[in-house]
Amino acid sequence: MMEATIRVEQLSKSYDGVLALSKLSLSVGVGEVFGLLGANGAGKSTAIECMLGTKKADGGSVSILGLNPVKERKRLFEDVGVQFQEANYQDKITVKELCIETESLYRTVNNYLSLLGQFHLADKQKNLVSELSGGEKQRLFIVLALIPAPQVVFLDELTTGLDARARRDVWKYLIELKEQGITMLLTSHFMDEVEVLCDRIGILKKGQMIFSGTVKEAVAASPYDRLEDAYLWYTNEEAE
Q: For residue 1, what are the contacts with CB-CB under 8 A and spacing of at least 6?
């Protein structure tokens, strides 16, 4: 059994008595890319927030790099990069200022200038974050997640709003990160992205993990021969 970087056991969360996450268990090995899939409202974001300790789970346990995200938060976040869908930043801050501000939070950092270069944002340093296009913001949020030189990266819908070319650029860079042994947990709605990046996937439906395994296994266990079709079959509400 390979060493687990992320270990989640029996994680549960309810909002006002409605179950958002039910006894979720998963483990992600060192240098592995794990894709958490599911329709909107299936519990993906809740799962990530509970894993990171930004939302308090009702039950279960999480360990990331052997640390408890709630109790050892500060130590853990030296080694964890997070890119959120709706990152909330002040409007009147430039790209450069935001990068410098992010750098100041960590002891060891990747050089933000070279990251901006890799993500084709070097010429946007003086721009306000609010002036960036959707795709540029998305790329910036990934840069911010990588500034702490993380061992583990959480990426939530990382290429939503990017065109096909930009998406492929991001994939290429993530594959390089993976080759450096960085562990990733990502959520995505794009099955082509999942096929390219993910070693294993978990499919959430109404807060429950209904499948966990490789892309090949997911397809093999369905009546279809394409991941897109298999995924729709797994998550389809009508077909029950």
A: none
1-79+152-162+182-240: CATH number: 3.40.50.300
pLDDT, one tens digit per residue, over 118-139 is: 889 999 999 999 899 888 888 8
Distances in whole angstroms, Cα of residue 239 to Cα of each of 43, 190, 232: 20, 21, 10
| Sequence-ordered strand ranges (E) for 107-180 | 152-156
| Length in residues, the chain | 240
d(CA 191, CA 231): 8
Q: Which residues of 133-171 are buried (b: 16+ CB within 10 A; e: fewer)?
A: eebbbbbbbbbbbbbbebbbbbbbbbbeebeeebbebbb
The angle, 0 to 180 degrees and rounded to 10, between the axes of the packed helices 95-103 and 134-146 is: 20
- The 10 Å CB-count burial string (b at 16+, else e) for 102-125 is beeebeebbebeebbebbebeebe
| Whether the Cβ atoms of residue 225 and residue 219 lie closer than 8 Å to each other | yes
User: What pLDDT shows up at residue 2?
Assistant: 54
Contact predicate 143/112, CB 8 Å: yes
Q: How many CA atoms lie within 13 A of 193 on its CB side?
A: 27
| Domain assignments of the chain as residue spans, ordered by start | 1-79+152-162+182-240, 87-150
pTM, entire model: 0.89
Mean pLDDT of 183-201: 93
Reported in sequence order, the residue ranges of 16-98 that DSSP labels E, i.e. its strands, are 18-29, 33-37, 59-64, 80-83
